[in-house]
Every structure is written in C-alpha cells, then in structure tokens.
Amino acid sequence: MDLGRRRSSTSIGHEKCSFHHDLELEHSPLPREELIPELAASYRSVIHNLGEDVTRQGLLKTPERAAKAMLFFTKGYDQTIQEVLNDAIFDEDHDDMVIVKDIEMFSICEHHLVPFWGKVSVGYLPNKRVLGLSKVARIVEVFSRRLQVQERLTKQIANAIVEAIKPAGVGVVVEGTHMCMVMRGIQKVNSKTTTSTMLGEFRNDQRTREEFLSLLK
Ligand SMILES: Nc1nc2c(ncn2[C@@H]2O[C@H](COP(=O)(O)OP(=O)(O)OP(=O)(O)O)[C@@H](O)[C@H]2O)c(=O)[nH]1
Ligand SMILES: [Zn+2]
C-alpha cells in the first residue's frame, strides 16, 4: 500500500514542504521569548504607520502585548511532533477505525496574517499501533499554530499520523472560516472552506472513506 500517494479534495500545485520538513521545522535560533523586543518594535512601527500615537496611554503596552499574542498564535514553530507525542504510541491489536472529530483549530492565514479557525476531524485505521487520543489534537495544535494555508495544514496533520504509527489509512477533514474572506476582501461572512486529505485505505477503498465521512456527519 502506498501511503505516500495522496488524495486531496483541493488541488495544490505549489506544495513546498517535504514531509521531513513538516516534522522537523527548523527552530528559530533564539528562545521565542527573546524575540519579543524586536517583534514589539515592529508592532510599534506598524501602529505608528497607521497614524496612531504610540505614546498614548492605551497603546503604550500594545506592541509588547501584540508581540506576545503573535508568538502564542505561532507557538507551533517551537514544537516538534516527536516532543508532543511523548512516546504515547501503544501496541494494540485493534484494526477498526478510530475517529477523533471536531477538534477546534485556530490558525493564521499566511497571506494576510489574520486568523482562520474551524474544526478538524481525523480518522485512521490502526495497524497494530494506536496513538494516545489527546495526541491527535496535539498534532493539530503543532501545525495550526503556524502561518498556514488550510490545504497544507490538512496534509501535515495526515502525514504526521502516518509517520507516527504507520496506520493502514488516514483521513483528515478540516472545515475553516477565514477572516480574510469575512472581514475584508470578498466579505462573505458565512462561507466555509472544507479541505480533506485521504491516505492509504482512505484513499484506495471507497467503503472505508464513506464509513469515515458518514461517521463525521
Ligand atoms: N488556497 C488557499 N487560499 C487562501 C487561504 N487563505 C487565504 N487564501 C487566499 O489567498 C488569496 C490571496 O490572493 P491575492 O489576490 O494575492 O490577495 P488579495 O488581493 O488580498 O485577495 P482577495 O482576498 O481576493 O481580496 C485569496 O484568494 C485568499 O482567499 C488558504 O488557506 N488556502
Ligand atoms: Zn488570508
């Protein structure tokens, strides 16, 4: 079975990250809190360039607050899958589908630096090994807390599960609302974007895929 072949409901012609890169994103050379002063200076400049008075009382601490907030929104850069899994991979003779659904997700659109959020559902067919259940949500956190596009986020989650437990198949469905489409631009308040990645039996076997999708309803 070729888990490397991917089926995705949206076509992506410009995938830049190799799987290895997905799991081993280079860390910033400094501990993240040491980035606060420079990030705060950048935010001070942004506020100033918006025509605001950076010395007025309400804005005095804003650059530093914004820097800390952005570091939180992107804390996934500081984590690796190996760390968050913490060896919570268990030998288990269970070969029926495992689904963790409606995992909340908050991310930052890499095109506009505004949030997108929604929910992630993950299913897999174990192959002698299962993941600690919370670890599925932790994998979602690692990849969503970065500058992202929804399609890449979806693939990275699926690939990480393949790498971790080599299951017979994985399906990931992400439903997202993008503030760049709500609060600006086309301003479509109710639009939602659904992306999916199906690997292994979820890709090759229609009944497996249908079972997964029907259990998500
Ligand atoms: N495929 C994909 N596109 C995204 C995502 N987030 C934002 N975008 C899109 O990125 C595109 C950027 O298009 P540009 O024309 O360069 O930027 P823009 O002028 O701000 O585009 P508009 O949003 O149409 O006003 C827009 O179509 C966004 O909707 C995402 O997660 N996936
Ligand atoms: Zn955007």
UniProtKB/TrEMBL annotation:
**Enzyme superclass (EC):** hydrolase
Q: Give the pathway listed in the UniProt entry for this protein.
A: Cofactor biosynthesis; 7,8-dihydroneopterin triphosphate biosynthesis; 7,8-dihydroneopterin triphosphate from GTP: step 1/1
Q: Per its record, what are the GO molecular function terms?
A: GTP binding; GTP cyclohydrolase I activity; zinc ion binding
The UniProt entry's GO CC annotations, sorted and at most eight, read: cytoplasm
Which keywords label this protein?
GTP-binding, Hydrolase, Nucleotide-binding, Tetrahydrobiopterin biosynthesis
- Domain GTP cyclohydrolase I: start-end pairs: 41-216
What are the recorded Gene Ontology BP terms? pigment biosynthetic process; tetrahydrobiopterin biosynthetic process; tetrahydrofolate biosynthetic process
Give the family, as the similarity comment puts it: Belongs to the GTP cyclohydrolase I family.
- Self-association state and partner proteins as the record states: Toroid-shaped homodecamer, composed of two pentamers of five dimers.
The identity of this protein, by name, is: GTP cyclohydrolase 1
User: Which organism was this protein described from?
Assistant: Hyalella azteca (Amphipod)
